[in-house]
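fold description:
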Amino acid sequence: MTLATPVLVVDDEPHIGRIIKTRLEQGPFDVTLAETGAAALEALGAQPETRLIILDLMLPGMSGIDVLRTIRQDPRWLTLPCLILTAAGQDAAYREADALGVAEFMTKPFSPRRLYARAMALTGTDDPHALPEPESMS
């Protein structure tokens, strides 16, 4: 039995979180949803084995940048991959997120298929439904 790969999705729009959760859980992921920065930090503390964070920049109260900055101050999550998924076109926020070690940026609206593919790549997770690669002929 393969263990699911834990992913934290942080978005204040519940329908966006549900779309992401539904798509990722069709594969090898176990998704925890958080709608605020404080809830995200609490969820990460409760599940320190999280392998990927999908983070919106525009959150009520604590911004996505604040969440990322707080996460990066903890040695356990210094290299935890973070994918920013946002509608924001704020160049300063993008530069700051990049400086904090964001793995990738995606803008809303987004392709759930592409997001799934990026989650697979960023976590180094194998898709149990993928067809095996053909053996090379040498």
